[in-house]
Design brief:
Shape: elongated
Strand content: 35-45%
Number of strands: 9
CATH topology of the largest domain: Jelly Rolls
Largest sheet: 5 strands, antiparallel
Radius of gyration: 26 Å
Number of domains: 2
Number of helices: 2
Order of helices and strands: HHEEEEEEEEE
CATH class of the largest domain: Mainly Beta
Structural class: alpha+beta
Strand order of the largest sheet: 1-9-3-7-6
């Protein structure tokens, strides 16, 4: 989120500077405060002209898409990741890659029998369990009920560890976040 703000404000400042340099390119003496000195910017970059093909369909080549994806991931400081865990016996965990920290940012799921839904993670060498609250609804035509949840979270899992979903059979969770090189 911080990187997004930095990028947004950097673009705003760059846009303001570009507009100011375009105003100077229109000609005229540099404006300044009454009785003060004007500023004349002389080292502005040269304009770039882009010509797109006029015959549809036109395409634009971005070059090496793998390098572009890597650059975006570096700018965001992580690689987006999403995974689903289903309560089962034995539990099937998500394996955090060695050398990468898992930052979980959103978790959602459902349970046929909404009694328990937990994530078990290891953060800084300490095993921790995170509980999720349900919104319970009756299942029409039955005596059963279903529980659903969706939460913004900030849960970290150490490199090379496992993330377990602890719940009763019939429960599942989908987690999204980022893999970060610490």
């Amino acid at each position: 989120m911080l990187n997004t703000r930095i990028i947004k404000y950097t673009l705003a400042v760059a846009g303001a500077l570009l507009i100011g340099s375009q105003a100077m390119a229109q000609g005229g003496p540099p404006a300044g405060p009454p009785g003060g000195l004007g500023v004349n910017v002389v080292n502005t970059p040269l304009p770039v002209t882009v010509t797109n093909p006029t015959i549809p369909p036109s395409t634009v080549s971005l070059g090496n898409s793998a390098a572009l994806a890597a650059a975006i991931a570096q700018a965001l400081r992580g690689t987006p990741v999403s995974f689903k865990l289903v309560a089962s016996k034995p539990a099937t965990p998500y394996l955090v890659p060695v050398g990468q920290l898992l930052l979980m940012e959103y978790a959602s799921g459902s349970c046929v029998d909404p009694s328990i839904a937990q994530l078990q993670v290891t953060t800084r060498g300490v095993e921790t369990i995170h509980n999720f609250g349900f919104q319970v609804q009756p299942v029409p035509g039955t005596l059963g009920q279903v529980g659903q949840f969706g939460h913004l979270v900030k849960i970290y899992a150490d490199p090379g560890t496992q993330v377990f979903f602890l719940g009763v059979l019939g429960c599942e969770i989908t987690v999204s976040g980022q893999l970060i090189i610490p």
